[in-house]
Automatic annotation (TrEMBL):
The modification N6-carboxylysine is found at residue 154. Its cofactor is Zn(2+). GO terms for molecular function: dihydropyrimidinase activity; metal ion binding. Keywords: Hydrolase, Metal-binding, Phosphoprotein. It is an enzyme of class 3 (hydrolase). It comes from Cryoendolithus antarcticus. Pfam families: Amidohydro_1 (PF01979). It catalyses: 5,6-dihydrouracil + H2O = 3-(carbamoylamino)propanoate + H(+). Belongs to the metallo-dependent hydrolases superfamily. Hydantoinase/dihydropyrimidinase family. This is dihydropyrimidinase. The lineage of its organism: Eukaryota, Fungi, Dikarya, Ascomycota, Pezizomycotina. The keyword Hydrolase applies. NCBIfam families: D-hydantoinase (TIGR02033). Carbamylation allows a single lysine to coordinate two divalent metal cations. Its EC number is 3.5.2.2.
Amino acid sequence: MAFDTILTNGLIVTASDILPSGTEIGITAGVITALGLALPHGPSTKILDARGAYITPGGIDSHVHLAQKNSPTGDGWESGTRSAAAGGTTTVIAFASQERGDESLVPVVEEYLKLADGQSYVDYGVHCIVTNPTAKILDSEFAWLFEQGVTSVKLYMTYEHMRVPDRGVLEILFKCRELGMTTMIHAESHDMISFIIEGLERKGNTEPYFHALARPRIAEDEASYRAISLAELADAPILIVHMSSEVAVNHVREAQGRLLPVHAETCPHYLFLLSEEIKGKEHDHFSGAKHVCSPPLRHRMEDLEGLWRGVANGTFTTWSSDHAPSKYDHPGGKKLGLVDGIPRFSKIPNGLPGVETRMALLFGQTEACLPASEAKLSLSRFVQLTASNAAKLYGLSGRKGSIAPGFDADLVVWYPGVEGKRVIEQGKMHHDMDYTPFEGVEVGNWPRWTMLRGEIVWSDDEGGVVGKKGIGEFLKRGRGEVVMGRTGNVPRGMLGDEREYWR
Ligand code: URP
Ligand code: ZN
Ligand code: ZN
Ligand code: ZN
């Protein structure tokens, strides 16, 4: 059997190892079919020379907002996934989103999948945001979601129009536990935040910077601890999304120490940017609106250091973009959040672009780009955070997230040495946004090639995005694995598993 493609001269990085140099990747029909030394070529085998560079699994960005009704100037499927491919991401998981008034999740998911159909440059899965977990939805539609391959839900503890009270969170957690689904939680205290926002507005403190004051760390710390407590009561796996606070991360670490299935996600903006950015330019404070996201960028270096520790020590399961942008300059010159010329931070859409810059920003902090003494994480940890953990947690095991026989040939081939050094600039991005929050940030490398199922879809040195719109396939996901915490051996109280008395 001849391979369609052999990738040679690369240094292959997996979640546990860097394979011996000389190891080649043989690809047949889009799938990795062999790893070995001096693989045999046939007459039609295409040889791709990685020239001594690292090869990592194609990125899985498990937190991407595309075509969201509540951000009409955000990226759609086409531009968002084009941007993903250009940055080394071969799978995105985006959000179908229930609005409060939607009585059924069925049309929510079906209509969302229709938007994606024929538009995507990369493979994609879908999570479902649940804002109103009625008895009908829990009793019949969660099982339907699972059958569709939508095996994870996201809930919000904050935002007036989306938040689910603790009681509803519990109902969802117990249902997800029963079905083997994963619950993602946006953890910020709604009551603290709404109380502060009211006070800030009353006092006329409404410029973008006050967004950071409106959502203090304690609001994230408290809600994260509460989310962990609810998960402990339900004994159900959770992932706390986009964590930004050192104290909240310590709550997670403590829970993991007790073998609770508590996962955490963080995003590049919390590790590369400080809240200073939200002050905007000297004569244009409103430009700080470009950096408004929730939780907000933090103030203290301690938070950044705490987050980097979590990246290195395994507390974080995933490194996601939370790509959730809105355009800064709107058609017609109307800036959202500027109401009759007066800045109103509470009206600025939350979220930043970042699907394209996610991989390179983290790769630049590994020993591939920095002296070992300065590297913030190992290359294997990079692979876990950007691909393999998300594959396991979200039910893509065996197909995505690893470089091994049987897996899809989704790969990133980096540049050797310093050839890949780049400065991030809006002009080089492939999203449909008018800014990048990382403007001017230098990264030690950039994906030279992104390969999706054996085909080059991004070629930095020859043509840019060369994959075709619509080649991305919908991924019907299965049951997630518990990446953190125990895999059995449930602790028992005085009466055994006491839940049996009330569930
Ligand atoms: O600021 C953010 N993160 N907005 C996007 C929606 C979300 O909460 O993930
Ligand atoms: Zn969120
Ligand atoms: Zn001002
Ligand atoms: Zn988000």
